[in-house]
Amino acid sequence: MKRLIFIGGAMGVGKTATARALQNRLQPAAML
């Protein structure tokens, strides 16, 4: 099943870190 996950929030709250962690757990995955 294909998923599209949006991560939003203010600067400095860890959006990129969260996206990278999800990318590692949800293989195959891509971060755009």
Description:
The chain has 32 residues and is mostly helical. 34% of the residues lie in helices and 0% in strands. It has one helix at 15-25. It is elongated and about 30 Å long. The mean pLDDT is 93.
What's the layout of helices and strands?
Layout: H1 15-25
Secondary structure tally: strands: 0
Total helical segments = 1
- Average pLDDT, all residues: 93
**Spans of 5+ residues with little confidence (pLDDT < 50)?**
none
Helical amount:
25-40%
Distance between the termini: 19 Å
β-strand amount: under 5%
The largest pleated sheet is described as:
none
String of helices and strands: H
In short:
The protein has one helix at 15-25. It is mainly alpha-helical and 32 residues long.
Structural features:
32 residues, mainly alpha, elongated
